[in-house]
Amino acid sequence: MNSQPGPPDFDHQIALRLAEVLERIDAVRQPGQSVTLIAVSKRFDASVVAGAVQAGCTDFGENYAQELAGKAETLRSLIDPAVPIRWHMIGPVQRNKVRRIAALVTLWHTIDREPLIEELAKRSPGAELLLQVNLTGEASKSGCDAADLGMLVEHAHRNGLGVRGLMTMGPTDTAIDPAPVFARCRELADHHGLEHCSMGMSGDFETAIVQGSTMVRVGTAIFGPRP
């Protein structure tokens, strides 16, 4: 795993950054709007994640199955086992990797095709997921077309899985306002009767919350630049 521990004062830095992010979330969310902060810990050592746990974070997002599995194993000896850690798979999922992390993942954010739904149902019956939808039209981004959402929701339900919402990413070009993309995702989630929208990262999570996000995936703003 390409990761390394931070400097001795890193835990303190994480606590300060985490508090700042939570304040920024509270400043823009509407009354009654629940927003889950998912700390994106990819490429950081398990000891860094343990520092975030100590600062009060319990939801972590990982992009790679091997890294998630290794980190979860190491953390067993670093944190109090009574602390509830929820792992979110937020990177593209390969079918042959599902089995390895099926017992660890609380919520799958990037499900976007029928074969992946079937593999998840096989390896993790009753799993909860979000459907990733590509709303920017960028070929570099994963996700299904908006027109396929209804079919995928039905397929997931037929396979006994719980579809909790949608996930999307804003435009890669930071000069483009991401608000219309986030608003469209919220509109689609509401249309399909889904509660959650996982959208918004370090550079745009406040805009996403204003547009109805219920989960934000924040890495750099909490952990700093990745190793």
Distance between the termini: 11 Å
Number of helices in the DSSP assignment: 9
Strand segment count = 8
CATH homologous superfamily label: Alanine racemase
Net shape: globular
Uncertain ranges: 1-6
Task: Identify the CATH architecture.
Answer: Alpha-Beta Barrel
* Rg from Cα: 17 Å
CATH domain class: Alpha Beta
Structure characterization notes:
Residues 1-6 have low confidence and may be disordered. By secondary structure, the protein is of the alpha/beta class. The chain has one domain (10-223): Alpha-Beta Barrel (TIM Barrel), CATH 3.20.20.10. The protein has helices at residues 10-28, 46-54, 65-75, 95-101, 114-123, 149-158, 179-191, 205-210, 220-223, and strands spanning 36-40, 59-62, 86-89, 105-111, 128-132, 162-167, 196-198, 215-218. An eight-stranded parallel beta sheet has the order 7-6-5-4-3-2-1-8. 39% of the residues lie in helices and 17% in strands.
